[in-house]
Amino acid sequence: MKPVHLLSRNKHFVMAALSIVMAHVSYSKLTVPAIATYFGTKCRYEDVNLHLRDDILFVNKSLMGPPSAACKAVHLVAVLRHGTRYPTAKNIRKLASLYDLVMAEASGPAWWLEGIKSNWTMWYTEDMDGKLVTKGKEDHRHLAIRLAKTFPTLMSRDNLLGERIEFLTSSKHRCVDSVKAFQEGLHQHLDVRDLVEAAFFLCSYELAIKSENSLWCNTLDEVDAEVLEYKNDLKQYWKRGYGYDINRKSSCSLFHDLFRRLEEASHYYRLGKATKAATVQVGHAETLLPLLSLMGFFRDKTPLTAENFSVQRGRKFRTSQLVPYAANLLFVLYECRDELRLQFFLNEKPVQFPSMGHPAPLYDTVRAHYSKLLQGCDFNKECELPKVNHMNTEL
Ligand SMILES: *C1O[C@H](CO)[C@@H](O)[C@H](O)[C@H]1NC(C)=O
Ligand SMILES: *[C@@H]1O[C@H](CO)[C@@H](O)[C@H](O)[C@H]1NC(C)=O
Ligand SMILES: *[C@@H]1O[C@H](CO)[C@@H](O)[C@H](O)[C@H]1NC(C)=O
User: Known catalytic residues?
Assistant: First the structure.
């Protein structure tokens, strides 16, 4: 560390400089800001699974084991979110505005403010636009190792080389995208609340991308973070979750695809034939949330609204917990004494299917539970646009 020349500056600056030095000294011990569990879809996976902070390859065998000793895993369908990524170009523009504002206008006694002004540069550039970062590749590499440890008969090297594991990346859904583009157009402009949120995101990106407890994290306390987390949950709830029926229905294809794979695996299994071991599909938070919602997971009794913050503190729909970077939904088919059972894991923790009262119900029971969706839920029908006379604005 460079020596700090204390005597040449005034007392105020000395105090500020000292606090920065001390903050840097404590980095090795305290690398995670207190607000790190509120970042919603910008949460690090290891801040949702805390034991991974110490050992990123740790698998809790008692948590991830088969439902009983008589069961063995026969098929896995994994729906994953991509890993840590850069902010989108739109967000980078907001971060730049925040930075410019702070450099030009901000003053005050806060120790971290001087630190930001003298020792932080705006290093995000628009060309980074949402690309996966190195840490993002690590997220999936580590997840793959943990899944191989958890399901050694399915996620094996042999199955990989024998092409018995299928990999897919989801294509974007046209109708969902149209809505997104429309809403983004409405949200283009910046206001002062955007800037507060920009600081929140900066803190999240600096942690997720650079593993740094950034000085920006000090601009918000835990109460602010809870509110901003709720704001993001509201957005996801109304755009991708239970808010509107169409949100859930956008995952009809994925839902059918999931059950087609399970059905095929169970069919082959019942015939006593070998089949594919696993499918790994990679998509977005926007892929995982509608599927979770379609299947009835994490549904709150009353809708999340802006008036509801305080009563919704204990809500189930918390995107920080549901869809951090590298979030994963695992559907595991087990053979248990001649029965097929299905178990669901979210982010490597078992979660019961809604209203089924068994950690790993019979596969047929799960199918019966979702029979309405299995027979209906036609993506094309659900997402059909009403025929109106559009002006063609695509030039
Ligand atoms: C949340 O707000 C909505 C509408 O503002 C209301 O209908 C609902 O009852 C509220 N829920 C709770 C738990 O207060
Ligand atoms: C700026 O950050 C660098 C790298 O962490 C550190 O060595 C240096 O002491 C900091 N300077 C000030 C004034 O905080
Ligand atoms: C593993 O999971 C079990 C069951 O939930 C829990 O009691 C235990 O503390 C976990 N172990 C570790 C190291 O996280």
Answer: 82
